[in-house]
Structures are given as C-alpha cells and as structure tokens.
C-alpha cells in the first residue's frame, strides 16, 4: 500500500495462487527499467494470454512467469505497453485499499 508516497507492506504475493486471482488486480512492482522505482499497475493478462499492445498491430503471447501490467492513468502510462511483460519476480504486493484521498477510501 502506498501512503503519502511511502510504501508500506501489508501483504505479499504468497496468498495469490491462481491466474484468475491475479488478473485485474492492482500490484506494486519494481520498474523493469528503473529498479529503484516502484510502480502500481493493474494486471490485465497473465502467462499464456495473448495481448495486443497499444499502438502496435500485433499480438503478443505473455511468457511463462510473466504478466502484462497496465496503468489506470492514461496520462502516465509507463507500463507493459512501453516495457513489455513483467516478471512475476518483480511484483511486490497486492493493493487492497484506496486510502488517499480520504474521500475515495474503499476496499478493492
């Protein structure tokens, strides 16, 4: 969970076992290009799925041990459409709540 830009860990991927549970969930992950940065992205495809990257006219098979992660923010879409599939080894925690701003507090 990110609190005021500070990452706090309240869970891990150890509780996520199936592709169905992983798909469409929000996760923090190390940036594949900048390992010192943490991104929060939505998993939109898992290993074995076919995806069509934005701005490309080709299908891509998500490799074993990877997932396709996309930004919910189209203005700041530094995601798999830019850097490709993300190794599950780079994934850190699953987001469970929105806590900021307080008016949007909710369970995911």
TrEMBL record:
Keywords assigned: Hydrolase, Membrane, Mitochondrion, Mitochondrion inner membrane, Protease, Transmembrane, Transmembrane helix
GO annotation, biological process: protein processing involved in protein targeting to mitochondrion; signal peptide processing
User: What cellular component GO annotations does this protein have?
Assistant: mitochondrial inner membrane peptidase complex
Regarding the membrane, this protein is recorded as: Single-pass membrane protein
Q: Is rRNA processing set as a keyword in this record? A: no
List GO molecular-function terms, semicolon-separated: serine-type endopeptidase activity
Q: Which InterPro entries match?
A: IMP2, LexA/Signal_pep-like_sf, Pept_S26A_signal_pept_1, Peptidase_S26
Which compartments is it annotated to reside in?
Answer: Mitochondrion inner membrane
Say if the entry is tagged with keyword Membrane. Answer: yes
The entry sums up its family as follows: Belongs to the peptidase S26 family. IMP2 subfamily.
Q: How does it assemble?
A: Heterodimer of 2 subunits, IMMPL1 and IMMPL2.
- Name of the protein: Mitochondrial inner membrane protease subunit 2
Taxonomy of origin reads: Eukaryota, Metazoa, Ecdysozoa, Nematoda, Chromadorea
